[in-house]
Amino acid sequence: MLDIAHNVPKNHFEDWQLELAAKLLKDFDSEEHNLLDVLHFFQGTFGYIDKELIPLLAKFFNLSRAEVHGVISFYHDFRDEKPAAYVLKICQAESCQAMGSNKLTTELKAALNIDFHETSTATDITLEPVYCLGNCSCSPNLMINSQMFSRVTSESLTQILQGLTEEQHD
Amino acid sequence: MSLDKDIDFGTPESKNQVLVSLEIDGHQVIVPKGTSIMRAAKQLGTSIPKLCATDNLEAFGSCRLCLVEIEGRRGMPASCTTPVEADMVVHTQTDKLAKLRKGVMELYISDHPLDCLTCSANGDCELQDTAGEVGLREVRYGGYQGENHLAATTDNSNPYFSFDASKCIVCSRCVRACDEVQGTFALTISKRGFESHVSAGIEESFLASECVSCGACVQACPTATLMEKSVIEQGIPEHSIETTCAYCGVGCTFNVEMKGEQVIRMVPSKKGKANDGHACVKGRFAWGYASHKERILKPMLRSSIDDPWQEVSWDEAIQFTAKRFQEIQQQYGRKAIGGITSSRATNEEVFVVQKLVRTAFKNNNVDTCARVCHSPTGFGLNKTLGTSAGTQDFASVESADVILLIGANPTDAHPVFASRMKKRLREGAQIIVADPRRIDMVESPHIKAVAHLALRPGTNVALINAFAHTIVEEDLVDWDYVNQRCDKELFEHWLAFIKQANNAPESVATLLGVDAETLRQSARLYAEAERAAIYYGLGVTEHSQGSTMVMGMANLAMLTGNLGFNGCGVNPLRGQNNVQGSCDMGSFPHELPGYRSVSDDLTRQSFEQDWGLSLDNEPGYRIPNMFNEAISGTFRGMYIQGEDVAQSDPDIHHVEAALRSLDCLVVQDLFLNETAKYAHVFLPGTSFLEKNGTFTNAERRLGRVRPAIKPRTGKHEWQITMDIAQAMGYPMHYEHSSEIMQEIARLTPTFAGISFDKLDREGSVQWPCNDEAPNGTPIMHVGGFVRGKGAFEITEFVATEEKVTPKFPLLLTTGRILSQYNVGAQTRRTENNVWHPEDILEIHPHDADERGIKDGDLIMLKSRKGETSLHALISERMQPGVVYTTFHMPFSGANIVTTEYSDWATNCPEYKVTAVQCKLTDHISEWQQHFLDYQEKQNTTNKVIPA
């Protein structure tokens, strides 16, 4: 399992460009209910939702700036700045807590020397809390980019981090 | 919040016809299906505690205070979101509920500052009231040791209200008011849970956000979070007077909330049928001009227009005026003097001015500023339908399925009606917009026109003919309607005309700049709708074919059976508060009150009997005639009531030359306006807060204007007119303005049933109001037309003489902006200037690029008539080849550029089409320099000399 950490693909995001966003947006249907899909798409493309995107989306979906901002800010998953090459989300929900995720979180923060929503430049990891990854039977869970790690222990956590760091030196 | 203690039912009324009976706290109540339990309880007189509910907003169910118990159901549902059901048994007050409500309230107060005694909402706070209702006595989580929002900052960016986030309970009422009532969607709840908060735009200040400052959020706020700055500064008002707004033709009903003689705030009244409890930035907030330091309160005279003004007594001013006018008449004849009535004055004030002209002046030289705005409406609708007024009430839009909006920009010029229209569009009605500019009704949050017919200025008639041609050609005519209600002969004649190939969409597409298929689709949509309504503004009337276009729209509505029903009609959005009324009151040189010709002997006789003298049976001068005659020396004296012709009328050089030629110009106004530069007598007028009378709005609704304060000048305006009449030898006498209305009712069949008493009783009434329609007439032409059979008029398109040339390759069209009103005399003396400090020139990027123009550059705008400089705004709202500006600021001199062309029937000026050139410049125009020099002189050597 731990070898897999070497295989976690790094995030590769486009640099924010309003013109590119406008071009990409044309492929979508402007029905209001597509707003969330479009937000996910842009976060996947640019790594975050740039503030400049909001008026563009508002016009496209025939909404106000306020409405689009309301939707984005409601969801913790949408970021307002570009994350590191790895986004590490550690579960804080009941099952994982019961299986020791609080302790893991403390260790993780200490190891990376950052708090939630911060980025460790040395390791190129952004740390985020998450509330349930839908894998409670294998708690505690964490996710790096789109790769899930389950039944994580202090030992395995260290190895995971090592794996990520080593990959960077590759 | 407001002083207005109208009952708040918590949730909107259900329009369902089915009735449901249920029991609440042991009492039976019968309400329409779909009513909330909260509303049903309130109908019984039972108040259920609430914070997030109010009856002009849909139920939201977020505050969790309005919980009730329903027998046979588990839990405690929110009464605002739970609809009634037959035989339901509801308990609103039980021990269990009391405990729960107290607990919820305790949580609210645990994060709310306990500064009630020094809070601006003290005594007018729903949070405070609700805490009292639930019997909150202690807060166990007190001390604010935990996390809280008490340090949240205040946004003071809006000039009229502040947003104090520390007092916010996040009930969303402001957000929902902005969405549901105003339709701007400028606010949102940002983030979630403990972090959730109200955000204007993207965490912007209110001023920088999409907010249009209508104040609906301030009114909806149950705490002091959103509060008028005037209340913060001066405290809660103690009494309130219901009146009618003095801005646009919507005619909103307001409560003027006061402390003694001090106006504290204006709050729109729920009882107002024109506005339904809503208001805009002008009506609600921009009333400070009434006490502006530039207001003139004493009469003034000067023998030459180059002299300084000298303050005098009322008596001296009146005698001087009468003497001058009489001397002129002795020397130059009876017709050498005349007057202009104001569309901002009350019906009573206008009535006496036209009476003064017809009696004391002994001629018919009276006209009104409607000449320059909606005179074609009066002419065109009278000719085709038989009444010089719009056909519907405003509420009719709530039943329209398709709206055809032509040459009107309601979000700026008639904002409260625009909110109503937008609400209907959000419910699913469709809109077609015909306008050279991409206005907000084409595209704005939750509004998208099915078609934007961005026609070239000056081609309206070709457009409406193409619609009619399509409808005839594709056999979408409502034959039953036409056969039963319209004049057969005129229709056959018209049919032959409209079938001509030159009226086909394909023939006019290039001329209009709109493709033929879009025209056809739009025509089909209009014709096939169950209920289709036309709304229009000055973009229709202010053309050389303004009257033709009005008749063209009436033809179209008759052709498709869209007159005489709810949801349909031909609806002018009239500009000024009392432009309908000033026309109704006989302000035209050819018509006595009620649109009856001066040459009609019977009509004239009825007035002659009442007024005790014989009247001239010859029509008098229209405004343009007055100016022309003044320049030629035969017209020498003029009485102008509340109208600034030297700013608002076209071709200002010509207007100024005319005014300069007069021997005696009397200006009655609040301020020394542009026209007053050429005046010899200045008679200070009263603001709407001082008036006692009536205004008639665009839906023919007469609303009362009640005096909140005494006339600051010492005289009502009708008294000034009366005094001049007396001084000139005509015994005009009234003790009270209500007597003037009695006279109007006595002499005008359409107003026969109207009196101050009736208006005070009913709130407002739409004319005709007489024995046949004792409660007024919301919708005209029901069952048949006022003129008998509807008249189809030939509407041949004739292009305006004003054409682009290599020298003047662009077309200028003029319009309005939300924050300013007309010549700006009122609004630019308020804080509204933060939104619009100067008139700007909108230009398409392509045209700007060709001329090397960038945003903010100073541009010389030049026509064959004159030139003026304005700053540029590059805007994709424009179409290439067309530029746009407003005329709110005198210094802009927009009307220096406009031309002498006018409507063929009514002389309404062609403001909407002027061939111009735009060039980068580094200096202001010569006229603008003169303007500044005059101002300088006024402030230095020519100061007013006190009495």
UniProtKB/TrEMBL annotation, chain B:
> What does the record list as GO biological process?
formate metabolic process; respiratory electron transport chain
Q: Name one GO molecular function term.
A: formate dehydrogenase (NAD+) activity
Database matches in Pfam families: Fer2_4, Fer4_7, Molybdop_Fe4S4, Molybdopterin, Molydop_binding, NADH-G_4Fe-4S_3
Q: Which GO terms describe its cellular component?
A: membrane; oxidoreductase complex
> What InterPro entries does the annotation carry?
2Fe-2S_ferredoxin-like_sf, 2Fe-2S_ferredoxin-type, 4Fe4S_Fe-S-bd, 4Fe4S_Fe_S_CS, Asp_de-COase-like_dom_sf, Formate_Dh-H_N, Formate_DH_asu, MoPterin_dinucl-bd_dom
SMART domains, per the entry = Molybdop_Fe4S4 (SM00926), NADH-G_4Fe-4S_3 (SM00929)
Q: Name all 4Fe-4S Mo/W bis-MGD-type domain ranges.
A: 238-294
Q: Where is the 4Fe-4S ferredoxin-type domain?
A: 159-190, 202-231
Specify the 4Fe-4S His(Cys)3-ligated-type domain's residue ranges.
Answer: 96-135
Q: Which residues form the 2Fe-2S ferredoxin-type domain?
A: 18-96
Q: Which Gene3D superfamilies match?
A: 2.40.40.20, 3.10.20.740, 3.30.70.20, 3.40.50.740, ADC-like domains, Dimethylsulfoxide Reductase, domain 2
Instruction: Cite the entry's keywords alphabetically.
Output: 2Fe-2S, 4Fe-4S, Iron, Iron-sulfur, Metal-binding, Oxidoreductase, Repeat
Q: Which CDD domains match?
A: fer2, MopB_CT_Fdh-Nap-like, MopB_Formate-Dh-H
**Protein family:** In the C-terminal section; belongs to the prokaryotic molybdopterin-containing oxidoreductase family. Belongs to the complex I 75 kDa subunit family.
What protein name applies here?
Formate dehydrogenase subunit alpha
Organism encoding this protein: SAR86 cluster bacterium
Name the lineage: Bacteria, Pseudomonadati, Pseudomonadota, Gammaproteobacteria, SAR86 cluster
